[in-house]
Amino acid sequence: MMELKEFEAMLSRSLATVEPKLAIGLDKVGQLAESIAAELPGHYQPGWAPLAESTIKDKVAKGFPVPSPLKRTGAMAGSYRKEVDPASLAMVVGSADPKALWQEMGTSRGIPPRPVCEPALKRSLPFAADVFGAIAVSLLTGKALLK
Predict the structure, then answer these.
(1) Is residue 87 part of a domain?
(2) 125-137 as b/e, with b when 16 or more CB fall inside 10 Å?
(3) Hey, how many other C-beta atoms are within 10 angstroms of the C-beta on 29?
(4) Residue 147: which pLDDT band, with cuts at 50, 70 and 90?
(5) Alpha carbon 29 to chain centroid, angstroms
(6) What value, to the nearest 5°, has the Cα angle with vertex 38 and ends 136 and 128?
(7) Is residue 4 scored above 70 in pLDDT?
């Protein structure tokens, strides 16, 4: 059994590793969310409106897969990225493609919202709980994180 002074010393050593471990955890969760976001275009998700008939006709005429919502060339699906800011311990998953924002939020011009980032992050939550739970255990026990 660890004495109180030993536990205090171990916690003091752990404090120096909190931010780097959290940044690593954010990166891992972000990688998963990014990969999920890249897989969602092309597959209907709960809550997504069906494609308009005009969109289906346009896709057929141009030789794109149908219905395959949000996917034509695959460029938008490939545009999702995660960014981690270790200094502020923040992580975001998104796309620099303006069309991805229009699809995520919908538009006043008739594009219904078909969110990708939100469900990708939600599906990453169980993994995040595991990752950050392991980090907490590591910090409180002084044991190394398992890879």
Answers:
(1) yes
(2) eebbeebbeebee
(3) 23
(4) low
(5) 7
(6) 10
(7) yes
Record the tokens describing residue 67, joined without a space. Answer: 């219905």
In a domain? residue 10: no
Tokens (6 digits) for 144: 């190394």
- Give me the number of domains the chain comprises: 1
Q: For residue 57, give its domain range.
A: 16-141
- Does the pTM exceed 0.90? no
* 95: CB partners within 8 A, 6+ apart: 37, 76, 79, 80, 81, 101, 117
Task: Tell me, rounded to whole angstroms, the distance of Cα 85 from its chain centroid.
Answer: 14
Residue with the bigger pLDDT between 14 and 134: it is 134
**69 SS3 class:** coil
Q: Residue 17, SS3? A: coil
Amino acid in position 54: S
